[in-house]
Amino acid sequence: MTIFPGGRRRAALALALSGVLALTATACGDDGSGAGGDKGTEGSGKGKITFWDNNGGVRTDVWKEIIADFEKANPDIDVEYVGIASKEVQSKYDTAIQGGALPDVGGVGAAMLAGIAAQNALEPLDARIEDSALKGKLNAGMLASVKSAGGQDKLFTVPTSASNGVLYYRTDLFKAAGLPEPTTWSKFYAAAEKLTAADKNRFGYTIRGGAGSIAQALDAMYGQSGITSFWNGDKTTVNDPKNVAALQKYAGLFKRTTPAADVNNDFTKMVAQWDSGQIGMLNHNLGSYQDHVKALGTEKFRGIPNPTLDDGTRVQVSNPVDGLGLFSSSKNKAAAWKFIEFAASHASNSKWNRSAGAIPANIEAARDPWLQEAEPTKLGAEVLFSGKATIVELPYYLPDWNTISKAENEPAFQKVLLGTSTAKEFLDHLAEQLNAAQAEWKQQNP
Question: Which Gene3D superfamilies does the entry mention (predicted)?
Answer without folding.
Answer: Periplasmic binding protein-like II
